[in-house]
Amino acid sequence: MRNRTVALALAPGALHPWDLYELGVVAAVFGTPQPDLADPWYDLRVCAIGGAGAEQPIGFGTVIRPEYGPEGLVGVDTVIVPSVSHECVGAERPVPEELVRALAAAHARGARMVALCDGVFALAAAGVLDDRRVTVHWEHAELLARRHPLVRVDDSVLYVDDGDVLTSAGMTAAVDVCLHLVRRDLGAVVANKLARRMVVPPHRSGGQAQFVELAVPERPADDLGPVLQWALAHLGEPLTVEMLAARAAMSPRTFHRRLLKSTGSTPMRWLLNQRLAHARMLLETSALPVERVAGLCGLGTATNLRRHFAAVLGVSPAQYRRTFEQH
């Protein structure tokens, strides 16, 4: 398995209680063996910049004693940086130099780098994000852009996959980007089964909007759920906004407004994202011809499927399939 070793890089300093969520997500996704999904699973190591065995406060009077120091980042496939302490974000003190050096060295050796929420400040301090598009929780976007002018900050999305560097917004976006990594490494089937086990949505596109006034929900409003589930079961059929609105007992205008508020997507954009997600799964898990895949996911023709793949993913369906054939 490629990208098997994962290091969680903990910076010194007490974390906010809600940062515990990110640590739990990483442990659940990468640190919990899933032999029925893939064997071997990931090998997760927790690295404290203060050194192996150094107590790391994680809130509520709890500490952990990681088995690795910064040397644990050497040679791993993926480095995940969770939120750093708020003193670092607020510039009351800089990101620890030892962490900065360790992250820069890991990246130079070819590790895939991942920042969860304001862990992006540590990657930026290490120079990993220069001239890259990244995201962060909307509350920190202005500060990140001001402090690191070479970084292109986009606070409108849940996560950004820039190949060997990935960044995500706050809290539940950590679930999204971690499952996205599993999808990249092991395919859609494994990622979807893991998501069901965790009782979370199997896939939210990184391009889904962050909301300032309203946090992104993990599921649509209850009155939209049944019609969206029905749509997912009928993606291969012609679907219109009017048809979906009628099933939801709403006017098209009301349905459009409610779906946009609940998911950050217009009805047609939501449908396209679901169809592309279904097409990706079929390409990853079957040998069906591209024309057949296009029909099953509701995009009609191979030409239409190729056009949308190029616009959204930057590759052709055939190129996408070959990528997963290499895993």
Automatic annotation (TrEMBL):
Q: Where is the HTH araC/xylS-type domain?
A: 225-323
> Which key words tag this protein in UniProt?
Transcription, Transcription regulation
Query: Which Pfam families does this one have?
Result: DJ-1_PfpI (PF01965), HTH_18 (PF12833)
Which SUPFAM superfamilies does the record match to this protein?
Answer: Class I glutamine amidotransferase-like (SSF52317), Homeodomain-like (SSF46689)
Instruction: Name the Gene3D superfamilies for this protein.
Output: 3.40.50.880, Homeodomain-like
Q: Which domain of life is it from?
A: Bacteria
Q: Which PANTHER family match?
A: ARAC-FAMILY TRANSCRIPTIONAL REGULATOR (PTHR43130), HTH-TYPE TRANSCRIPTIONAL REGULATOR RV1931C (PTHR43130:SF3)
- Protein name per the record: Helix-turn-helix domain-containing protein
Source organism per UniProt? Nocardia jiangsuensis
